[in-house]
Specification:
Layout (H helix, E strand, L loop, with lengths): L1 H14 L4 E7 L5 E6 L1 H10 L1 E4 L13 E6 L5 E2 L9 E9 L10 H14 L3 E14 L23 H15 L4 E6 L5 E6 L2 E2 H21 L2 E4 L13 E9 L2 E2 L12 H12 L1 H8 L5 H4 L9 E5 L5 E4 L13 E3 L8 H18 L16 H6 L9 H9 L2 H7 L1 H20 L3 H7 L4
Parallel strand pairs: 1-6, 14-15
Antiparallel strand pairs: 1-2, 3-4, 4-6, 5-6, 7-9, 7-10, 7-11, 7-12, 8-9, 12-13, 12-16, 15-16
C-alpha cells in the first residue's frame, strides 16, 4: 500500500507539472514550518527522507545534535491551490526522525501518532470534528487596535458581505485540499467567523487544522484582510475557541453509543469523559497555550470556566450534543475549552491520553451539571464539587508541571521544553505595563 501511495505521488507530480514540493512539519508550539525540494528530489525524499538542521527549529535538537530527518507521509500529499499560474506547488506533511531512523521525540506529529497507535492496539480509532472560530480584521498597523470588517452577529448576512465571500473562497480552497467542511457562518462577535470541519481520525484532523489555519490566512491576505486565531483580540465580546467533537470507534461501531442508556452514552464514553474532567486542569496549558487564551476563559462570554458536563448546557467544559434522529454514529462529546492557537498534535494527544486513562482506570462520571454555572456563587459550586479551569497561563503551567499524565503523554523532551518556553512567555507578560494599568493607576496613586 505504501508503494502504491508513493507511485501515486510521483505520477501526480509529473502529470500536474509540479515545480516545487513543500515538506511541512510543526515546531513544539504548533508553528507550521516548511522547506521546499524539487520534483527530482522527491523520490529520494519518499524513500530515505531529507536531512535538515533541527537546531534552527524551536523545541527541536540542541546544537550538538542538530541534524534530523524529515520523512514525507505520502498519504498527506496535496496540490496547493494558490500560487503562480503555470508553476504548481504541492505539500506533504513529514514525520521527523533521528538520522538512525528512530522517531524524533521532539516532533509533535510523532507524539500524536504514538497515542493513535496505542488506541488502535486496543481496538479504538479516535475521531474529532473541530468548530474553529477566528476573526477577520482590516490589515493592522503596528501599535493599533484591531478594526473589524463588520458589526454582525450570529448567522448575520450583511450587505456586500466581505466576510461571507472570504469564507466561501476558503471553503473552496479547503475542499481542493481534501478537507471537507460541514458548516460555516458569521459568529456572535463583530467580524468573527466559524467554520466546522467534518469528522475524521485524529492524525488526519491535526494535519487538517494546520492546513486550515494557513488557508484561512492566505485567502484573507489575498484580499487585503488580516485573519487571526488569537483567542481574545477584542475586549467586551466573546473570544475564539476550537470546540472539539470527539468519539471513539471500534471498527464501524461507535464505542460511545449505548441505546439502553438515558443519555445514549456507553460505559466507555462515561469513563472517557470522566478522564477528561479529572485531568482537565493538567492539560489546559496544552489546549490553551497563550497568555491571551485565559482572557477568553472567563464567565459571561460562552467559554467554559467550570469543570463539569451536561447535555445542553454551554457553561460547562463538556457538552453531550443530542444526536439527530438518535443516530448511533452521531453520539459524541464536545470538549469546549481549547482554542485554535494550540498545537493540535499535542492537544489531541493529551485529550486522548486523559480519556484513555479514564477508561483504563474505570473513572466514574460525576453528576450532570444542568444549571447555568455562570449564575452560581462559589459556595453553591463547591457544594456540587465543581472546580474551575486554571485562570491564567501561570496557573495552568503550575498544574501541568505536577502531572504525570501530561509528562508521559508528551515525553520528557517536549514536556520540559514547553514548560521552559511558556514560563518565559509568562515572565515577559508579567514585566509588561499595559494601557489598562496606566489608565487605572497613574493618576490615582
Amino acid at each position: 500500500m505504501l508503494d502504491q501511495h508513493r507511485d501515486y505521488v510521483l505520477r501526480t507530480v509529473e502529470e500536474r507539472g509540479v515545480r516545487l514540493v513543500r515538506l511541512w512539519f510543526t515546531d513544539v508550539l504548533g508553528n507550521l514550518k516548511s522547506f521546499a525540494i524539487s520534483p527530482a528530489e522527491l523520490e529520494n525524499a519518499l524513500e530515505d527522507g531529507m536531512t535538515f538542521d533541527g537546531s534552527s527549529i524551536d523545541g527541536f535538537s540542541r546544537i550538538q545534535e542538530a541534524d534530523v530527518l524529515a520523512i514525507p507521509d505520502p498519504d498527506t500529499f496535496e496540490i496547493i491551490p494558490w500560487g503562480e499560474a503555470g508553476a504548481s506547488e504541492a505539500r506533504v506533511f513529514c514525520d521527523i526522525h533521528h538520522l538512525d531512523g528512530s522517531p524524533f521525540d521532539g516532533d509533535p506529529r510523532q507524539v500524536l501518532r504514538r497515542h493513535v497507535r496505542a488506541a488502535h492496539d486496543e481496538g479504538y480509532t479516535f475521531y474529532l470534528a473541530p468548530d474553529v472560530e477566528f476573526f477577520y480584521f482590516e490589515q493592522p498597523a503596528p501599535g493599533e487596535r484591531p478594526t473589524p470588517l463588520d458589526e454582525g452577529g450570529f448567522f448575520d448576512l450583511t450587505m456586500r458581505d466581505a466576510a461571507g465571500d472570504l469564507r466561501k473562497q476558503t471553503i473552496r480552497k479547503l475542499e481542493q485540499m481534501s478537507i471537507p467542511v460541514e458548516y460555516s457562518f458569521h459568529e456572535d462577535a463583530p467580524s468573527q467567523q466559524e467554520i466546522d470541519l467534518r469528522h475524521t481520525d485524529a492524525l488526519t484532523m491535526a494535519d487538517s487544522v494546520m492546513t486550515f489555519r494557513l488557508v484561512v490566512k492566505e485567502v484573507a491576505a489575498s484580499q487585503g484582510v488580516h485573519a487571526t486565531f488569537m483567542p481574545k483580540p477584542l475586549q467586551g465580546v466573546q473570544g475564539s475557541g476550537m470546540h472539539l467533537h470527539m468519539s471513539l470507534f471500534r471498527g464501524d461501531e461507535n464505542a460511545f453509543y449505548d441505546g439502553d442508556d438515558p443519555h445514549q452514552l456507553s460505559p466507555v464514553a462515561k469513563s472517557f469523559m470522566a478522564g477528561l474532567l479529572r485531568h482537565a486542569s493538567e492539560i489546559t496549558a496544552i489546549t490553551n497555550q497563550t497568555v491571551n487564551s485565559y482572557k477568553r476563559l472567563v464567565p459571561g462570554f460562552e467559554a467554559p470556566v467550570h469543570i463539569s458536563w451536561a447535555r445542553n448546557n454551554r457553561s460547562g467544559l463538556i457538552r453531550v450534543p443530542i444526536a439527530k434522529k438518535a443516530n448511533p454514529l452521531a453520539t459524541r462529546i464536545e470538549y469546549r475549552s481549547p482554542d485554535a492557537a494550540c498545537n493540535p498534535y499535542l492537544a489531541f494527544s493529551v485529550l486522548l491520553a486523559a480519556g484513555m486513562k479514564g477508561i483504563h482506570e474505570g473513572y466514574e462520571l460525576p453528576e450532570e451539571a444542568e444549571d447555568n454555572l455562570f449564575e452560581m456563587d462559589d459556595a453553591a459550586l463547591a457544594k456540587l464539587g465543581i472546580t474551575q479551569l486554571p485562570q491564567s497561563l501561570s496557573d495552568a503551567l503550575r498544574t501541568m508541571e505536577e502531572s504525570e499524565l501530561v509528562q508521559e503523554a508528551l515525553g520528557e523532551h517536549i514536556f520540559e521544553w514547553f514548560l521552559r518556553n511558556k514560563r518565559r512567555e509568562w515572565w515577559a507578560y508579567k514585566e509588561h505595563v499595559s494601557q489598562f494599568e496606566i489608565d487605572r493607576y497613574l493618576r490615582s496613586m
